[in-house]
């Protein structure tokens, strides 16, 4: 079902941004490409707001180039760009102060896009439920205290999203909070990871025990997955995550986290993205990412990547992008996360990867079956009784 909506004015643009991204952006710089006479939305790019003003010129040029290059590769050179700068005020700061502080960044983005022959037709600052336009002419200045965003659910975009069955976008902070360890350091979980590291790492480095370690990792993960499947998730995200955490023992979770550092084990775990198990799988990977405390934060890359993969495979592109971006923040060279992040942004079909994972699983199962059968072609049966007598004698010898 194709649903179209027409946005009129900067206020409706600001209100539409969470629906374009799938979440309420915070501390974010967003560029959206426009195509054609009527300004059809195209590619979009979101990054965290660069903190150091000295980096703004370089960042603006890089982001403008990325948006134009990727948009051109996917659907043609963009005809215009809309810029969003989203940040709530810090302590002692007013929303209007945020707008003025970010004005030079908006100007650099306008210049950078203009140098690529793509005009910025609108640049908005969104802060504390209010918006300002950096593109209004001097004769029509924006109110000093900005303009309030429309009430939730009252706009054409909200009505269209409800008609299409799309969920109300949550905040970026809320999505990230479900994937990060608690702010208070958990020493018991850190000790469990220390013990698991001492036990699992030597087995992973021993050639004769690495396959045994993979089987143990996946066995523990599978058992945890089945426990989560047996307990329906709660509607409240915080309570649901607390429930999932309670279903995982510290030593069990630590062993799986260490085991998933092996890429072969991680790839086999990625097969759990089929309907019926995907919901429990994404809950499991989130819970394991939250367990990566203290010096083990970088170990969250594997469960974060698996979270992103399963979220994408079930149609939740918002969480997929957030989880994969968090994984790449920890390890920019993690190949699986980079490939998935590109695939999500390119709009590829996750079924292509699911099909590949099914094929790999079939090959592995057939390989194990062939190994059990052995060279005689039948497990445990010895030589074929229909073979010539001299061949059976040679086989016995």
Give a quick precis of the structure.
This protein has 397 residues and is of the alpha/beta class. The protein is 54% helix and 11% strand.
Given as residue ranges, the uncertain stretches (5+ residues, pLDDT < 50) are 379-397
Strand content: 5-15%
Principal-axes shape call = elongated
* Helicity, as a percent range: 40-55%
Measure the end-to-end span: 70 Å
Report the mean per-residue pLDDT as an integer.
Answer: 87
In N-to-C order, the SSE pattern is: HEEEHEHEEEHEHHHHHHHHHHHH
DSSP strand count: 8
Kindly report the oligomeric state of this protein. single chain
The class by helix and strand makeup works out as alpha/beta
- Give me the Rg, rounded: 26 Å
Query: Main beta sheet, described?
Result: 6 strands, mixed
Count the helices. How many? Answer: 16
How is the largest sheet built, in terms of strand order? 3-2-4-5-6-7
Topology:
Blueprint: H1 9-21, E1 23-24, E2 28-35, E3 40-48, H2 56-75, E4 80-86, H3 95-114, E5 120-127, E6 130-133, E7 147-148, H4 156-163, E8 170-171, H5 172-177, H6 187-205, H7 210-230, H8 237-246, H9 250-259, H10 263-269, H11 278-290, H12 301-313, H13 317-330, H14 335-345, H15 351-373, H16 389-396
What does this protein structure show overall?
- This protein is of the alpha/beta class.
- It has 16 helices and eight strands.
- It has helices spanning 9-21, 56-75, 95-114, 156-163, 172-177, 187-205, 210-230, 237-246, 250-259, 263-269, 278-290, 301-313, 317-330, 335-345, 351-373, 389-396, and strands spanning 23-24, 28-35, 40-48, 80-86, 120-127, 130-133, 147-148, 170-171.
- The protein has a six-stranded mixed β-sheet, with helices on both faces. It has a two-stranded parallel ribbon with strand order 1-8.
- Helix 12 runs antiparallel to helix 13 and helix 12 (301-313) runs parallel beside helix 14.
- The radius of gyration is 26 Å and the shape is elongated.
- The N and C termini lie far apart (70 Å).
- 35% of the residues are buried.
- Residues 379-397 have low confidence and may be disordered.
